[in-house]
Amino acid sequence: MKVITFILSLVLMAPAFADDENPAKELLLKMADAVHNRNFDASFVVVKGKTMEPYRWLHAKQGNTELEHLSLLNGAGLEMVRIDDQVTYFEPQSEPYSIDTDSIAGPIPEVLFKDVERLSQHYDFVLGGKGRIAGRAAQLVRIESKDEYKFNYWLWLDAESSLLLKSAYVNHAGEMLEQLQLTHISVTEEPAALLLEMLNRKFPTPLPAAAITQQEASTESNNWQIGWLPEGFSLLKSDRHKLDLNNELTDYYLYSDGFVEISVFVQRPLPGRRPSGALSSGATTVYVHNSGSFDVSVVGNIPAMTAKAIAESVARPL
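^ that's the sequence the OP posted. Answer follows.
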């Protein structure tokens, strides 16, 4: 009895550890903090199959002001500039425009630079092995989907700075579908001159907020019923507009689980009956379903079976 009492006293005196303590999640939070507070100049490529997109990514903290610049280096180019909570897009053959947002819509999921805790209900954070990426010591962190309807996402973080060195969408067979690989990164004490120059530039006045509230989105979505979505997805936006590709009127729905976005388009059948089917580029799937009286297109970084199930669940309201 004395032995049992002694062991019990040790347990009661031992420091308490939170049930949700997770070293993988802690590393992701450190990465988010580093991305917002460090000065760095990085180059990376996004590899999708045989295609490759090169980017340059700069970030700085000047006093209390956060500065960020992301540019696509191939083709006509694409430039994105962020000063605190305003992002300006410079796109080929269109006028520049600004929006009020705290993150650039780039190839890295925005939630990774925020509080990833919101993902924990539908994803697990798992610590992987160590390696070497871009000549730097790296730690693998895996964001694993809790079901088979979404891809996993792996990140390799710089052991010294906590910044991202590589990431990949990975299917449940362990195959990398799409990769983002840094080819160069320099962490500096002072901001890059290009970023400081942004403080003296004039940018367009931000557009009115494009996002609508959940209640408004639900009201707008009465044209169609989306009968099935993976767990955790909710409606962000819905509207009716003409597609630039063919000038056809379509009903549009945007869903998200906080990490992955899924777009659903519903329109009248196009001339010439086409069989239903999927096309993939890297992690992005485009599934087109011909129901006879209407066509459904589902686009997102999701498995083809998920896109197919969503498309086939669309029906007219009863």
